[in-house]
Amino acid sequence: MNKTVLITGSTSGIGLGIAQQFAKEGYNIMFHGLEANGQAIANDIAKTHHIKVGFSNANLLQPEAIEHLVTKTIDTFGSLHVLVNNAGIQFVSPIEDFPNHKYENIIAINMNAAFYASKAAWKQMKTQNFGRIINVSSVHGLRASEFKSAYVTAKHGVIGMTKVLALEGAEFNITCNAICPGYVKTPLVEGQIKDQAKAHSMTEDEVVEKVMLKKQAVKQFVPIEAIADMAILLAKDNSTTITGTSFALDGGWSAQ
Ligand code: NAD
């Protein structure tokens, strides 16, 4: 029987890379994201890898929509083995100018959505006596940077939640872990490069070198494939004892 994975934000960036790796492993996948071509992305991957897929554009700002996304996954595939809470947004501003609605949306999408999705998946995972919850946090779940008050708060919160779910899931073979990437070149970061170039009056290359990769000892963006490989490892049957932990894939940033 093919296992089922639901990956939020899997029609772009890191989530899409994770989905491609799970597809290679033969998982059935519930794709999710706001990209207009989401269904087409899902269909292409299904064809290439001979897997079953679904697609949802549920808005993660709405708890009922998240519950429905999880229910739809279980109804479609009859199971839910792996939940990857990946979707996220970013906004950068000094605190005194930080718009309240931007703060609230970052907390809702980057942190609260992981709670609602995990809560909705819990009963099914308990019944299966198998569950793997993988939260895509960030090096900003372990370290702070100025002007990212909402993002750093949400990503630290996700790591706290990861530990609690690991404790609660232990007796049901439900594990929960966080992956904490440094900078990864995705649409989310490409937007930041442009914004920071404007803010610092620098070229985009200078932003990458002097701002983004400044704290990464390895002066490279983190490859999406490395994050996807880590997710595959955490999802394995024999990863039961790997739980409650955060894995930094950050080029040595948090070693400092
Ligand atoms: P991305 O912008 O490429 O993808 C984000 C996904 O989230 C998209 O599919 C988008 O549609 C979805 N999404 C956003 N708001 C949504 C909403 N309201 N409802 C439903 N879906 C919504 O971003 P990415 O860089 O691939 O980021 C993925 C995750 O990785 C995020 O949690 C991000 O914080 C984290 N992360 C990224 C980096 C990086 O450098 N790119 C580093 C560390 C952590």
UniProtKB/TrEMBL annotation:
SUPFAM superfamilies assigned: NAD(P)-binding Rossmann-fold domains (SSF51735)
Residues that span the membrane, as ranges: none
Pfam families registered for this protein in UniProt: adh_short
PANTHER family, alphabetized: 3-OXOACYL-(ACYL-CARRIER-PROTEIN) REDUCTASE (PTHR42879), 3-OXOACYL-[ACYL-CARRIER-PROTEIN] REDUCTASE FABG (PTHR42879:SF2)
Family indicated by similarity: Belongs to the short-chain dehydrogenases/reductases (SDR) family.
Protein name: 3-hydroxybutyrate dehydrogenase
Species, as recorded: Winogradskyella damuponensis
Organism classification: Bacteria, Pseudomonadati, Bacteroidota, Flavobacteriia, Flavobacteriales
